[in-house]
């Protein structure tokens, strides 16, 4: 294969953990940052930084230019029609909460329904529970098949005339399942129901085209996409954003404030109260440049090969059971182990320099669905190698020896 | 400086593995006077602690239920072994010592026998992310004695 993981672009990957070579297999929680991102943020902060959309001085103009260029970059990344459909938030979580508060809340009343899948991350569950608590809305759960896949026709059954929103993840952070979004969105739209997509994993591992998907909202976060923490994105169709109330109130989101009344700025500024994550926006744009520069199809193919190698390798352990075997899935390997708790396993793996996630992965509904309290998760990224997988396998064998 | 493998061996020493594989005082307790439920939000593990406290404030019986990692199971098992027969004040004092121990702090004034028995868990202090696993059952025991407000491991 032609793609060589650019490990030397990621300074942290050369450090040792407990005297061992680091095998970072927790990118689904947060990805490591390439030097290109760190350099871009530093360069911007040391040469062009100021607050944005305020002031007329040279640096204010330069910073505003960079911030808006980042917005345009994200719009191209998602193939959004207009840059003003991109709202910068503090993360994926805030983006989803924004939809709950600013879009759904005024449109939903007691007895109305929100359709949610059982594979969602808590950040795509709790904002809808808020609507249950505050507006007495009803959550309707779409079941996950035993192999971790979704049946699109289950949405057909779940959506009723009372449904006000469908919330679905592009890719599960536990199962790795890639959902048939286009089909799901078409089903919902045929019934006049808008769809919000949690793209926190999907934006990293899939090629996203919001126009082709016809998604109403698509949320993702910067830090899983090799970018900085503290920034996320909400894509929203222009017509939706224009009809939405503000989220936070403060500077920058208003047109005019008088003693008697206020008028709001147009989107996206309406949803970006206060000083936004400016340096982070520049970092996110650099991350997208870097990532796309490697070739998204090549990265995807590389991750699939690493996953296949790991999936095959764990077959030697008859005490290890993989959760999530959907035909269409990304590079996430979750499993439970007989007689070994995920936390004990993760501690022993860490001693071998292998960083994995152990726990419920902020997906307790899904854990309950598969009747486990926690799993161990190895997640792969563009910098993952076969050597990382080999370290994982050696660590698993060692853990079995100690705990088994 | 301890070698990594040494600290791992200390954490998963035989006594701990034995407690976790064959937990003592495991199961429900009929006629319990105090019940507590603890939850570790980090891993989703849950533990229940049931106590029988007699008229002289003595813990005459104790049981625990729930599944968790080796550290939390061993800690719960060791706890039940150590506090049965003691009065409530002593049990709470022992808990304070235990919490200090797993955080690598001074355990304070403690008799030699108790010190030795608690010491099997001392290896946890090299693993700060695992302190909550070790303290869950103890916090749950305390919350049960205080009236059964759900405990969270701190």
Structure explained in plain terms:
The complex is a heterodimer of chains A (404) and B (154). Chain A is α/β, with parallel strands linked by helices and 404 residues long. Chain A has two domains: 7-32 and 296-403, Aspartate Aminotransferase, domain 1 (Alpha-Beta Complex); 37-292, Type I PLP-dependent aspartate aminotransferase-like (Major domain) (Aspartate Aminotransferase, domain 2). Chain A is 39% helix and 17% strand. Chain A has 14 helices and 17 strands. Chain A has helices at residues 35-47, 58-78, 92-104, 126-135, 152-158, 181-190, 202-205, 210-213, 238-242, 278-294, 296-313, 342-351, 364-369, 386-403, and strands at 16-17, 20-21, 23-24, 86-89, 113-117, 138-142, 163-169, 195-198, 217-221, 232-236, 254-257, 262-264, 320-323, 332-337, 354-355, 357-359, 375-379. In chain A, the strands form five sheets. In chain A, strands 4-10-9-8-7-5-6 form a seven-stranded mixed β-sheet, with helices on both faces. A four-stranded antiparallel β-sheet of chain A has the order 13-14-17-16, with helices on one face. In chain A, helix 6 (181-190) links the parallel strand 7 and strand 8. The longest helix of chain A is centred in the first third of the chain and has 21 residues, at 58-78. Chain A is globular, with a radius of gyration of 22 Å. In chain A, 52% of the residues are buried. Chain B has helices at 4-11, 14-21, 70-83, 88-102, 112-118, 131-145; strands spanning 34-40, 45-53, 59-65, 151-152. In chain B, a hairpin with a 5-residue loop joins strand 2 and strand 3 (59-65). In chain B, helix 4 packs antiparallel against helix 6 (131-145). Chain B is built from six helices and four strands. The longest helix of chain B is centred in the middle third of the chain and has 15 residues, at 88-102. With 154 residues, chain B is of the alpha+beta class. Chain B has a single domain (4-152), classed as Sufe protein. Chain: A. Chain B starts with a helix and ends with a strand. At the A-B interface, helix 12 of A face helix 1 of B.
